[in-house]
Request: fold
Amino acid sequence: LDKKRFSYYDLIPLFKKIHSSRFEVTSAGTSADGKDIKLIRYGRGPLRVLAWSQMHGDESTATMALFDLINFLSSNDRNNSIRDFLNDKLSIYIVPMLNPDGADQYKRRNAFEIDLNRDALRLQTPEGKILQSLRNSIEPSFGFNLHDQNSRYSVGKTFRSSTISLLAPPFNAERSINNVRSESMKLIVDIYKMLSRYIPGHISRYDDSFEPRAFGDNFMKQGTSIVLIESGGWKNDDEKQFIRKLNYLSLLHSLFSIANSGYAGCDVADYFFIPENDKLIFDLLLKNLRVKYKNNEYLTDIGINRDEISVLPEGSCYYKAYIEDIGDLSIYYGYEEYDLDGYSLEPGMVFPEIINDYADLASMDFEKLHKDGYINVRVRNSSGFPEYSVYPVNILAEGVSSDSSIRTEGPANFVIKKNNNIEYTVVNGFICDPKLRRSCIKNGLILK
Reply:
């Protein structure tokens, strides 16, 4: 699993590879579409732990990490003493993909569009019933509720991305602290200290508003100490392979801490010193630009975000960008930031020549097009258009106009000039310096 998009069927051969005598792989039940939901058990110790991932089908980071954990527990090397210790102290139960139907479409909800994490009261989904049944039968002391969060969350009001968020969910609206919740808080403090050795300043505390329909909140009420781990963003880690390692470290460290009671010495008060999530990060932030409107020029910042759009069935994706905000964005930050004092923004142009066919675009000199301010190319025959452009320009069908307006929720396509010379082009929210003669634009748009 080296990409964050994978299907239920990609896991089947991985389940078959689990042969250690210390593992037991069984069926926990079936999904709405009849897929087998696997339960993996390791160890025969008295302390029981339950971990589940991909409750939301498009949140796969922890699933990769759980298989890393399984690989570690399956190995035979100098760390055998750790494996023996965990085997003797713990019984670890793992559900690595609770929502296989959603995972196959890389969408949040299950097959009939219910958010599993809002089904803890009614239990109308087969997947929700399975999870509740497992908690009832296993009665775990600790539970790990593993998710992905928006990559644009920040650690408090800082420039640092919230790469890992942690939460001991409340069991009531008053957010009371009893022994069950305090155990979660102590373990989170222990995780926080460990992670701070690797990603200092990039760990936060998730919003602790009580959600009566969520499984974490209800399991806490039922006596299981829940640790919510949310995987956020890290610069240049679109496939979350680095964040996957952080998940693995968090899980392995937690298991060892539970087994040897290492977390018990942590102070609940330290839990509240972990900064809370905020949302102050754009994918691209352009600062101090000059924008013209009706013969006047205004100083402004532009915040741009890019959404991933899945292309099925092959599982690939493309990006569709939009302008999130315009104005004084001085309190915000960007994964990419440009201070463009002295630069002005203008609409990009459409190449004057109409290209006959999409395949003919392969021979075009896109660097020259960008230098000349062309970010859109018109193609006469639109029958062969794919769903997105693999080229660093937007492709327009004949008769379709380009949207060059600068507005919130509008497309992010324009050129940036200084002294009337084109210094940067922005195509579908990706910024490119034409002088570098290499494109940083992952894909343009198709407009037909």
The chain has ten helices and 23 strands. The mean pLDDT is 95. The longest strand covers residues 296-311.
